[in-house]
Design goal:
This protein is about 65% helix and about 0% strand. By secondary structure, it is mainly alpha-helical.
Length: about 150
C-alpha cells in the first residue's frame, strides 16, 4: 500500500510546484539569485524534474530520459511555460511508472547505487519524495522573499 501513498505525495508536491512557479509575479523573478541564495526557482524546478525523470523514469521505468544535471543549474531564462510543461511531463512519468511498479519491488535493491551503499527501491522513492519537498520549500521562500 506504500506505492499509492508515494504516488499521491509526488503528485501533490508536483502540483504545488506548478502553483509556486505560476505564482511568481514575473518570469524574470524565477531566475533571480540574491545574496547567499545560490539557486533560483527556475533552476530548482529544472533540477527537480530532471532528478525525478532520471531516478524514477529512467532507472525504474526505463523511459530513456537522459539527464543533464549540470544544465539543470546552468540554464537561465527558460520560459515559465516550458518549466510548467516539464512538471506536467514529470507527473505523467511518475504516474505511469508507479502504476506499473509491483508493491514487493519496494523491498528490492534499487537498480543503481546512488549513495554510499545500495538501498531499496522503497528507500530511494522515499528519499526522492523528501528531496522534492525540500526544494519545494526553498522555492516557496525564494518567491515570498522577492515579493517583499
Amino acid at each position: 500500500m506504500q506505492i499509492p501513498v508515494l504516488k499521491q505525495l509526488f503528485l501533490r508536491d508536483l502540483n504545488k510546484l506548478k502553483q509556486e512557479i505560476s505564482a511568481y509575479k514575473s518570469e524574470q523573478q524565477l531566475w533571480v539569485v540574491d545574496k547567499n541564495i545560490p539557486n533560483c526557482a527556475g533552476n530548482l524546478c529544472l533540477h527537480l524534474t530532471g532528478n525525478l525523470q532520471h531516478f524514477i523514469g529512467t532507472v525504474i521505468g526505463k523511459t530513456g530520459y537522459v539527464r543533464d544535471r549540470p544544465a539543470e543549474f546552468a540554464l537561465k531564462n527558460v520560459p515559465r511555460a516550458v518549466l510548467l510543461q516539464q512538471v506536467e511531463e514529470t507527473a505523467a512519468v511518475i504516474t505511469a511508472v508507479l502504476d506499473k511498479l509491483p508493491e514487493d519491488d519496494l523491498d528490492k535493491t534499487y537498480p543503481i547505487v546512488v549513495f554510499e551503499a545500495a538501498t531499496t527501491t522503497g528507500y530511494m522513492l522515499t528519499h526522492l519524495a523528501v528531496h522534492l519537498g525540500y526544494h519545494l520549500g526553498q522555492i516557496n521562500y525564494h518567491r515570498r522573499l522577492l515579493d517583499i
